[in-house]
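User: Reviewer 2 asked us to show a designed sequence for the structure in our supplementary figure. I'm pasting the structure tokens here. Could you produce the per-position amino acids so we can include them in the response letter?
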């Protein structure tokens, strides 16, 4: 055989083996419930833990075990990672070993801008800081970050910690030292740039590790940014593929004959022909939510955000493929199927919320499903193999912009929402206020992730219960300047009934599309949930409470007020045989932007400030990690 072919074959085999090692490493780590190894707990975005030392019987004995201040005052979204058996190298000074090498369990913690990363020793009594990474970013990125300077978390793989900084720099840090071998402090192993903040492109999402790739997306739909998702090689940072949300097939990585929408081929350049002129170039569809992955199908799943501008009269057509759920091949980025939840969006109902990958029995047979709670207020259950739409029902009864989703496959409007034109800003016209549209722009659920409990078959979902008055107006595009084109006022969904609560925490049956139980919350439930084999589900509230409820019934079993409002996602882990529950508090995000940024006008913060004005009576700024355990 030709020596070159032999050499090439061996190289390819080595790469394949290396890739398998990466895949096996993370898959194996996910099977260990004592760790929390990815932003959402696992590839499937289930946010469920098999730990069961904390139960419905003893959860009332939870106490604060320890706390850690991040030193940052803006909104703290996302969650820490917990990785066991990290080998910390010896420390030398002037050629002399001053500290021996050791192995320990490590918590990796992140902050909003400036995106500081901490590695904390979980076996050390004082939870000593092993290393700290403090990136130097230009503060000019702050004004172009929509809805607070949040960051939704870190990723782990191949012995590295990955951070997507606000300025669209993706960095790989050594998990043991925070830097590359022999490098100075704050020097990443590698870094790449995947956006341009001068045009309004920023980063708020957590990167995700799938097999041998790091997947990351962009934010900035309110600045006319064109959405894209990118996959990088985990070892080197080399760009493997990039798929845009809008544009020609060569950009979107859509095959016009093989990529389907509700079972039918999408046709040539579908990312252009539903836009007027070149509006697709400012099309939005950014990808700042969560991503999931099915190793058997080798498909990744995610959603895209709103089209730009918010004024629907300036962009006629369905505006594909904003507001869309995507299934892409992990290795090539090629789109397998798509489903647009809100064609020609008129309300800013981003579809970026997570897809939870669950095998369920539907119609008497086992189906590989993807479950998605959309900002538009409908809970969708789809066949994740082919994108077939199985269930679509309202998960907040206040939803009124559409009466239903057409589920008749023989209908011309199959899969589309049937609109109530009373709540259509386009129908009512520019400079006219559409009153009482539900939900508001922040949706019946925003990025705050749900959990799936396999023991009950229930999805545990933090939701918003908020409506709005919406007035679109004409706006011109200028790179790096807001490209919104609408004014919004938000208010409680049931204010006409004398009720003021603006959130619910619900249990959802995704096979039937039904709410099983629902707990009212004074403010939107803006924290990610985690369910456990102990029969307990945890979540946080904007006032700052960590709450524990019985997964089956919703009965509140425990609550404790942390130092600030919680918009972070609860996790649970175990160290040396003891189970802990941890959550970041630090009020902010879209719901808390008034507090976080000192805004006072009711329609500031894209309409959120007025609705959450009273939040200042219950909590204040401050980033703190709080860790709980059972009192012994």
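Assistant: Here is a per-position design you can include in the supplement:
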């Amino acid at each position: 055989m030709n020596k070159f072919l032999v050499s090439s074959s061996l190289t390819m085999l080595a790469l394949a083996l290396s890739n398998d090692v990466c895949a096996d490493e993370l898959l194996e780590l996910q099977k260990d419930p004592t760790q929390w190894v990815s932003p959402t707990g696992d590839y499937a975005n289930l946010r469920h833990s098999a730990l069961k030392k904390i139960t419905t019987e003893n959860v009332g004995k939870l106490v604060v075990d320890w706390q850690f201040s991040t030193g940052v005052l803006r909104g703290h979204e996302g969650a820490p990672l917990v990785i066991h058996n990290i080998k910390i190298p010896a420390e030398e000074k002037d050629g002399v070993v001053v500290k021996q090498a050791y192995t320990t369990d490590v918590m990796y913690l992140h902050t909003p801008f400036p995106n500081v990363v901490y590695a904390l020793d979980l076996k050390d009594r004082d939870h000593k800081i092993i290393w700290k990474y403090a990136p130097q970013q230009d503060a000019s990125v702050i004004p172009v970050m929509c809805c607070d300077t949040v960051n939704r978390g870190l990723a782990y793989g191949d012995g590295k910690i990955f951070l997507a900084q606000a300025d669209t720099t993706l960095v790989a840090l050594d998990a043991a030292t925070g830097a590359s071998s022999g490098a100075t402090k704050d020097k990443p192993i590698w870094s790449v740039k995947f956006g341009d903040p001068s045009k309004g492109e920023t980063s708020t999402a957590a990167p995700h590790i799938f097999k041998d790739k790091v997947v990351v997306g962009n934010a900035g739909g309110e600045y006319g940014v064109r959405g894209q998702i990118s996959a990088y090689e985990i070892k080197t940072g080399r760009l493997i593929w990039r798929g845009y949300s809008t544009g020609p097939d060569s950009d979107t990585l859509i095959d016009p004959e093989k990529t389907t929408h509700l079972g039918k081929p999408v046709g040539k350049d579908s990312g252009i022909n539903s836009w007027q002129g070149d509006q697709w170039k400012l099309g939005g569809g950014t990808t700042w939510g969560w991503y999931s992955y099915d190793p058997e199908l080798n498909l990744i799943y995610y959603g895209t955000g709103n089209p730009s501008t918010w004024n629907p009269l300036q962009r006629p057509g369905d505006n594909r493929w904003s507001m869309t759920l995507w299934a892409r091949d992990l290795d090539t980025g090629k789109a397998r199927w798509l489903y647009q939840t809100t064609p020609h969006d008129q309300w800013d109902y981003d579809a970026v919320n997570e897809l939870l990958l669950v095998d369920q029995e539907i119609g008497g047979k086992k189906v590989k499903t993807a479950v998605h709670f959309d900002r538009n207020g409908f809970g969708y259950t789809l066949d994740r193999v082919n994108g077939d739409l199985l269930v679509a029902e309202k998960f907040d009864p206040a939803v009124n912009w559409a009466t239903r989703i057409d589920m008749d496959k023989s209908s011309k409007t199959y899969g589309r929402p049937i609109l109530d034109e009373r709540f259509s800003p386009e129908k009512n016209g520019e400079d006219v206020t559409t009153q009482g549209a539900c939900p508001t722009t922040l949706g019946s659920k925003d990025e705050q992730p749900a959990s799936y409990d396999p023991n009950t078959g229930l999805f545990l979902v933090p939701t918003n219960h908020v409506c709005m008055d919406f007035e679109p107006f004409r706006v011109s595009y200028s790179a790096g300047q807001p490209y919104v084109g609408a004014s919004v006022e938000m208010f409680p969904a049931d204010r006409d009934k004398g009720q003021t609560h603006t959130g619910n925490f619900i249990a959802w049956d995704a096979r039937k599309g039904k709410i099983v139980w629902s707990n009212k919350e004074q403010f939107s439930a803006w924290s990610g949930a985690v369910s456990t084999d102990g029969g307990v589900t945890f979540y946080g509230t904007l006032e700052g409470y960590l709450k524990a409820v019985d997964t089956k019934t919703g009965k509140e079993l425990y609550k404790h007020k942390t130092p600030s409002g919680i918009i972070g996602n609860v996790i649970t882990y175990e160290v040396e045989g003891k189970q802990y529950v941890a959550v970041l508090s630090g009020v902010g995000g879209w719901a808390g932007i008034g507090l976080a940024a000192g805004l006072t006008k009711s329609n500031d913060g894209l309409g959120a400030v007025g609705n959450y004005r009273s939040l200042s009576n219950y909590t204040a700024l401050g980033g703190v990690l709080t860790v709980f355990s059972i009192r012994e």
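For the response letter, you might also mention the following. Residues 473 and 485 are 5 Å apart (CA to CA). The radius of gyration is 23 Å.
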